[in-house]
Design goal:
Length: about 160
């Protein structure tokens, strides 16, 4: 078993399994109608209503993403959007790191305006909290645990058989 754990094949198994996990994360973040329930993109697709005087969005927490031009919302719900922040890193020890967000630039000032909008409306923190309260991450964690355990069990069994 120690030979199987040190083999070059194990590294390939880890990388293949991490790629599979990344596809699942993509579903949880940007998917629609996935087996994991409501995704982050679906949460941030909800648009905050505009004020009747046309001067901004209705205040209050939990009402959705404030939209003026749609640049901020698109950066959170479109995977390939120029202002989307979605970094995925895989490490040799089997761990994975995901970074998600949006960072649109105000064309007038040339600066990011995510933080000022978040300070005023708190929509991003609300959306993340709603996502965390859902079952998506728990279901994903269980799914990934099954994927990793099945894959490694199969690797060690096949390695043991080939050494006989």
């Amino acid at each position: 078993m120690s030979r199987a754990a040190k083999s070059q094949n194990l590294k390939k198994v880890v990388e293949k399994t991490q790629e599979q996990a990344m596809r699942r994360f993509d579903q949880v973040v940007y998917g629609r109608g996935t087996m994991y329930g409501q995704t982050l993109a679906e949460i941030f697709s909800k648009t905050r209503p505009r004020r009747s005087d046309g001067k901004g969005s209705v205040g209050g927490r939990g009402r959705g993403t404030p939209v003026k031009t749609g640049r901020l919302q698109k950066s959170l719900v479109e995977y390939q959007n120029e202002f989307a922040i979605y970094e995925r890193k895989m490490f040799g020890n089997g761990s994975i790191r995901i970074k998600y967000g949006g960072n649109p630039i105000d064309p007038k000032t040339g600066r990011s305006y995510m933080s000022s909008v978040e300070d005023k409306y708190g929509f991003f923190a609300d959306g993340i909290k709603k996502f965390e309260q859902g079952q998506a991450m728990k279901m994903l964690a269980n799914d990934l645990a099954q994927i990793f355990s099945k894959t490694f069990k199969a690797h060690f069994e096949s390695s043991a058989r080939s050494r006989r």
